[in-house]
Recover the amino acids of this structure.
């Protein structure tokens, strides 16, 4: 019986993987389609050049670190015309988690709590030393710090050990339903507290657009490639305010190279037509209203707060904290960890690190003099070099070129 069940599960999994591979190849390996899309992109870019002049740069911001990965890994920057500038945005939760919370987690680890953390947060360096330690990885020999891949894993381990523990709950809207579901179902043991550091993405996008608007010397952001994964939960409607208030096109994009190229094409098409709409390219996963059930459980477990973003400061209504009814498992309410308040926030990037400018689309990783000199993936100095969603870490690993360069040469673009 068990073996029958295992066989059926195995075959379901293998069918699922076949479908995933098929979708992946359709959006990754179709050179003919790439060539058609690129020709259209060239056409629109030419029209824009005629309308705005040769020097005008059309800055398109990809909010999400995974889009930055796709763009850099597949060399998409070298494929698009020179008047299109693709810039990274603030979509890396590890990059924007304030140093203060990691410092608090280090204190807790040294005071005998077990700390559960994701692998990238584990390597994140603080600006201030805590009793001689600068990261959770440093403290591992003197404290109990465990790397987990999910909240469920932390729950299971805390139940087994019975030890007083804290889970560092970082992430964007995508992870919040998983946290909320466990909280509401009451499966989090009281010996495990959650330090909820979940951040909401649209407020960061509004802030980024505002500050780039305030500085007329910067080329303005003319279009946004919005995060597909986040939008599976929030729905595309969460981004409509960007196109409505800032008058620029927004495309909710998938993560394969052809998804990103199609999104760039849609933005250029709208710019040529003088439109500013929010459009879903990632139709295989995202709807206009999103996952309403997930939104409900998130609202039941969490309240929205003004929250601090590393190197940037407090952004209105940009974070989630547990509701009062769950205070027994809230690290901020129960074990004396003070939440960060605007009057306590201090600039928290290490000297010379330009991570905040990188996440706000004002600088490229290579503009930082420390890039690949002092700050490298094996020895990250600033937060954007830690996670694979951080622009500096992505640029350090993949640079540019690759398959895209070959296609660009085939098409006579280089
Ligand atoms: S290369 Fe390192 S130091 Fe420079 S901006 Fe990126 S993370 Fe900061």
């Amino acid at each position: 019986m068990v073996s029958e069940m295992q066989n059926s599960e195995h075959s379901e999994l293998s069918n699922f993987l076949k479908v995933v591979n098929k979708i992946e190849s359709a959006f990754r390996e179709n050179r003919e389609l790439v060539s058609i899309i690129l020709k259209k992109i060239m056409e629109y870019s030419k029209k824009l050049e005629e309308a705005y002049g040769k020097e005008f740069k059309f800055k398109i911001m990809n909010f999400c670190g995974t889009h930055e990965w796709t763009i850099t890994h597949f060399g998409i920057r070298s494929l698009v015309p020179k008047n299109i500038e693709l810039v990274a945005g603030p979509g890396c939760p590890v990059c924007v988690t304030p140093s203060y919370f990691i410092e608090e987690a280090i204190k807790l680890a040294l005071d005998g709590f077990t700390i559960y953390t994701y692998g990238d947060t584990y390597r994140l360096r603080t600006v201030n030393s805590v009793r001689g330690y600068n990261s959770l990885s440093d403290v591992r020999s003197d404290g109990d710090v465990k790397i987990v891949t999910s909240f469920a894993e932390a729950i299971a381990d805390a139940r087994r050990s019975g030890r007083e523990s804290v889970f560092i709950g970082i992430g964007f809207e995508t992870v919040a339903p998983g946290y909320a579901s466990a909280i509401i179902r009451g499966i989090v043991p009281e010996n495990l507290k959650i330090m909820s550091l979940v951040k909401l993405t649209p407020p960061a996008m509004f802030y980024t657009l505002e500050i780039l608007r305030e500085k007329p010397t910067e080329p303005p952001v003319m279009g946004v490639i919005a995060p597909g994964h986040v939008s599976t939960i929030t729905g595309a409607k969460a981004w409509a305010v960007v196109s409505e208030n800032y008058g620029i096109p927004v495309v909710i994009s998938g993560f394969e190279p052809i998804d990103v190229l199609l999104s760039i094409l849609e933005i250029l098409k709208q710019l040529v037509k003088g439109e500013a709409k929010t459009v879903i390219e990632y139709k295989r996963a995202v709807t206009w209203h999103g996952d309403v059930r997930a939104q409900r459980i998130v609202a039941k477990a969490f309240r929205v707060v003004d929250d601090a973003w590393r190197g940037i400061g407090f952004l209105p209504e940009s974070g989630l904290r547990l509701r009062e009814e769950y205070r027994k498992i809230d690290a901020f309410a129960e074990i004396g960890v003070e939440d960060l308040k605007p009057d306590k926030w201090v600039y928290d990037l290490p000297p010379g690190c330009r991570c905040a400018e990188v996440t706000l689309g004002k600088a490229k990783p290579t503009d930082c003099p420390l890039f690949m000199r002092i700050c490298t993936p094996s020895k990250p100095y600033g937060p954007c070099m830690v996670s694979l969603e951080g622009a500096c870490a992505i640029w350090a690993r993949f640079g540019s070129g690759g398959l895209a360069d070959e296609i660009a040469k085939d098409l006579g673009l280089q």
